[in-house]
Amino acid sequence: MERTIKIEKKFLEIPVGEFIVIKGKDKGKVFKLASREALVGTSPSSDIRLSDPTVSRTHCKIFWNDEAKMFQVQDLGSTNGTLINKIPVVNAFLPPESIITLGETEIVFKQSGKKRQIELFPEENFFGCVGVSQAMREIFSIALKSAQTDMNILIEGETGVGKEELAKAIHKASPRKEKNFVVCDVTTIPKELFLTELFGYEKGAFTGADKSKKGLVELADGGTLFIDEIGEIPPQDQVHLLRFVEKKELRPIGSNTIKKVNVRIISATSKNIDEEVEKGNFRSDLFFRLSQFRIKIPPLRERKEDIFPLILDTLKKLTDDEKKINMLYDFLQKNSSFILNYNWPGNVRELKNFTERFYRIWEITGEMKVDIPFMSIRNETAQDKYDFKSQKRKIIEDFERTYVIELYQRCKGNISECARLAKVNRKYMEKLIRKYIKNETENL
To answer: Parallel, antiparallel, or unpaired for β 181-185 and 153-156?
Structure first.
């Protein structure tokens, strides 16, 4: 199919990190991190895979912090913890020459001096998907490239991050845009009817089949089939989907006729699909066929710069009146500290629901109120009381709040001095001050 979309390229440069194992079972191994993020652990899905049994399967992740211009380490609830220069950390910056201790393994971090260019989509809206963060604009760049091919795409991320919206955007950006975009939500289909829904059936194929019905695959012919929550596909049915993916042909239930179809598959999952493959719950051959392109959408709490652009986009979909939009948006911005401090466990879906609820209440009553659902916060706290990762996240936020307030007072409000003492980028320090010193935001 002809490629028709040409957009000016933009790039972000990040240094290439080297991780040298100096102690432990993997001593002597060298890993290079040329991407924004790497998972460290013993799991086969780890980017930096270790064999030390005292290292957890998903021990920690190392990622590039765009604002601080530094690599950062985040412990992922490991059994034996993560240490930097012998100091236990939950989430910390990683200076060059630091020694990372994971169980009985020690790794020294070095910067190679080389840099890698990461391509960013030049705009903040990708065919209806909104994202101003560098993480999302990198995703949009990958999505655009994948859209111009017929290769299958796997989109991963927590519930509500916008996997289906990105799939629709990819379809709109592709040469298949004039054909159907058909959704197959595995969670809404009874397990015993999955193949029937997917491939259709002939009249008389089973009791109650009083007429023939096309399956979702045939309805998507020439276009895109979006299979949501592939991790829920019954194991006994995965081999049938594999055959279709390989042959691009189907046989409706009760029929002897084989039909050829031209469909590109975009699938999505909120599960750790690598672990499902390793456990034998998901066929590895099917996984590799469906993940020719692989896109991971980060949760909203890790890209809070996207929150207000998403709010504005939702308001524009609710009304065309610019005066109303500006008035409501300005009110929400004045309450930004409350909105940004909430973790949005339901991600983009929850944010859109919040914005629509805010708009509808104002439309009916004339009252403007930031109505974050306190009950869901309380419920989450009760449920997460003994959740290790949740409690660590709270400890990090408490530390940051105390640290930033004390630093800000010591430097008498001089943000540049705060950044210098903290050894972080000034822009990142501004963000921390806005987050934790609410009364001072007007002075930034």
So the answer is: unpaired
Comparing C-alpha atoms, which of 29, 36, 80 is closest to residue 50?
29
Question: Which residues have a Cβ under 8 Å from the Cβ of 113 and sit 6 or more positions away?
Answer: 15
What does the pLDDT read at residue 442?
42
- DSSP letter (8 states) at residue 54: T
Angle at 184 between CA 286 and CA 292, to 5 degrees: 35
Using DSSP, state whether 112 is helix, strand or coil: strand
Question: Tens digit of pLDDT for each residue in 127-154?
Answer: 999 999 989 999 999 999 999 999 999 9
Strand partners, 264: 224
The pTM assigned to this predicted structure is: 0.76
Question: What strand order describes the sheet that includes 105-120?
Answer: 30-33, 10-23, 105-120, 99-102, 82-84, 87-89
DSSP H or E stretch at residue 356: helix 347-365
pLDDT digits over 299-313, tens only?
A: 998 899 999 999 999
Within 13 Å, how many C-alpha atoms sit on residue 112's CB side? 15
Distances 120 to 135, 174, 348, 356 between C-alpha atoms, Å: 9, 18, 21, 30
Query: Helix 388-410 and helix 415-422: axis angle, to 10°?
Result: 130
Question: Any idea which of 100-109, 125-134, 206-215, 231-240 has the lowest mean pLDDT?
Answer: 206-215
Measured CA to CA, the distance from residue 1 to residue 345 in angstroms comes to 40
Longest dimension (CA), the chain: 81
